[in-house]
Amino acid sequence: MNDPARFRSRIATEDDIPAITELMRASIAVNMRAFLSEPEIKAAQETMGVDRSLISDGTYFVIETDVDGETVMVACGGWGKRRTLYGGDHSPGRDDRLSNPATDAARIRAMYTHPDWIRQGLGTLLLERGEGAARNAGFKTIELGSTVPGRPLYEARGYEAYHIEHHTGANGERNTVIHMRKLL
């Protein structure tokens, strides 16, 4: 991170949802282009979005900075203590039962950086916040469902892939979700 003091992280609130939604849209539309075609991005969007349970549980963070005297949200992401591995409120197959720290893994969830703020260590900052909070909650393992573009960051931070899942989007394109884990 070029200047760590310029970024502040805090727990997200319901009032942040419109800004989080806009940040997610910008991140998906731009940051995935180097890895996926536009139709593949469209398919991937079907499993992405805001998960209100993370906000309600107090496990979702936003990172902000000041630009010309205004506070700007530049990244968001968090960790989950529920069994759902990935996806937004609308995603099928959710399992919102609480995980048992003694036997289940915590989850890294919904990580997004605004395209104007990539390559400044914000993903790493979010991972550190989520991993630390999960560790403090008693979890020994943490897992995530990565997109193809997210995989290099997670591997650099010690996560290992253990399963690859493919979905077919409504447009017929493949959406790949890479299941990864790490010991805390």
Top CATH class? Alpha Beta
Structure annotation, total helices: 5
| Spans where pLDDT lies below 50 across 5 or more residues | none
**What best-fitting shape do the alpha-carbon axes yield?**
globular
Strand line-up across the major sheet: 1-2-3-4-5-7-6
Q: Strand share of the residues?
A: 25-35%
The total of beta strands comes to 7
Structural domain count: 1
Mean pLDDT: 93
**Known CATH architecture:** 3-Layer(aba) Sandwich
Main sheet overview: 7 strands, mixed
CATH superfamily placement: Gcn5-related N-acetyltransferase (GNAT)
Radius of gyration over C-alpha positions, nearest whole angstrom? 16 Å
Order of helices and strands: EHHHEEEHEHEE
Give descriptors for this structure.
184 residues; alpha+beta; Aminopeptidase; 7-stranded mixed beta sheet
Task: Give me a quick take on this structure.
Helices cover about 25% and strands about 30% of the residues. By secondary structure, the chain is of the alpha+beta class. The protein has one domain (about 5-85, about 95-184): Gcn5-related N-acetyltransferase (GNAT) (Aminopeptidase, 3-Layer(aba) Sandwich), CATH 3.40.630.30.
Secondary-structure blueprint:
Layout (H helix, E strand, L loop, with lengths): L7 E4 L5 H15 L6 H8 L6 H5 L3 E8 L2 E11 L25 E8 L8 H15 L4 E6 L4 H6 L3 E9 L5 E10 L1
Parallel strand pairs: 4-5
Antiparallel strand pairs: 1-2, 2-3, 3-4, 5-7, 6-7
